Amino acid sequence: MRDTREAQAQIARLIGIMADLRDPDSGCPWDIEQDFASIAPYTIEEAHEVADAIDRAAWDEFPGELGDLLLQVVFHAQMADEQEMFDFADVARRISDKLVARHPHVYGDESRDKSAEQQVKDWETIKAAERAGKAEKGVLDGVALGLPALTRAIKLQNRAARVGFDWPCAADVLDKITEEAAELVEARDTLGPEALNEEFGDLMFVMANLARHLQIDPEQSLRAANAKFTRRFQAIEAALAAEGRRAEDSDLAEMDALWDAAKRVEKGRA
C-alpha cells in the first residue's frame, strides 16, 4: 500500500496554491473574480474530460484530467472558506463520513456476504433515510437540477420505479417510443415550435427510459456514437483530401458512399 504522506503533502500544497491565487492583494485577477456560479461550468466540463480520457483509454492523460477535476473541488472549497461557509477539510470529512455510513458491511457489523445487487438496494435504503433526515419528502427530491439532462432523466426514472411507477418491460417502452414519435410528427406538421420542442423532449425522456430498461448508460452510449460519427466523417475528409478536395467540394451522394466505405472498413469488410 502506498504511503499516504506524499498525497497529504500534495493536497496541502494544492490548497495553498489556490489560496495564493485567490489572495486579493497578490493573487491572479481572473481567479479572484470567480464565484461559485462562474466556476460551476468548468466543474462539469472537467468531469466530462475525465470520462473522455477513460473512454479513449488515455491513461497517460488520466492523472492530469483527475487533477483538473480535483482543482474544481479545491476552488469551490477555497471560495467557501473565504465566506466562512466551510473549507476543504469539511468537504473531505463529509464524504468520508458518508462512505463509512453507507458501508456498514465494511465499517460496521453487517455481513459482507451479499450480492452487488443487494448492496445497491441497501444503499438506496440508507440514502432514503438520509433524505428523510434532510426533510426531503417527495420521491424525486434531491435529484440535482444541474446534472446532464440524460443522466437526470435516468435518476428521476429510477426513483419513480422504486415506488412502482415504471413500465414492466422494455417492450412497453418501445411501444411508448412509437407513440411519442407519432406525436412528434404531428407537432411538426400541425403545431408550433413550442409544442415541437415539448414533444421532442418527451421522446428523449422515453429513450432514456429504454436505456434504463436495457441497462445502458445513455451518456456513454451517445459519447460512443459521437466518436463513431467523428471517425467516419474524418475518413470522408481524408479520402477527399487524397484527391486534393475538401468536403465542400463534394456532394451528399459521394460523401454517403465514402461513409459506407469507412463503415465497411471499421466492420472489417473492406
Automatic annotation (TrEMBL):
GO terms for molecular function: ATP diphosphatase activity. Residues 34-106, 174-232 form the NTP pyrophosphohydrolase MazG-like domain. GO terms for biological process: dATP catabolic process; dGTP catabolic process; dTTP catabolic process; dUTP catabolic process; response to stress; TTP catabolic process; UTP catabolic process. It is an enzyme of class 3 (hydrolase). InterPro entries: MazG-like_dom, NTP-PPase_MazG-like_C, NTP-PPase_MazG-like_N, NTP_PyrPHydrolase_MazG. It catalyses: ATP + H2O = AMP + diphosphate + H(+). Signal peptide: none annotated. Its EC number is 3.6.1.8. It comes from the Bacteria. The keyword Hydrolase applies. Keywords: Hydrolase. Belongs to the nucleoside triphosphate pyrophosphohydrolase family. This is Nucleoside triphosphate pyrophosphohydrolase. It comes from Paracoccus tegillarcae.
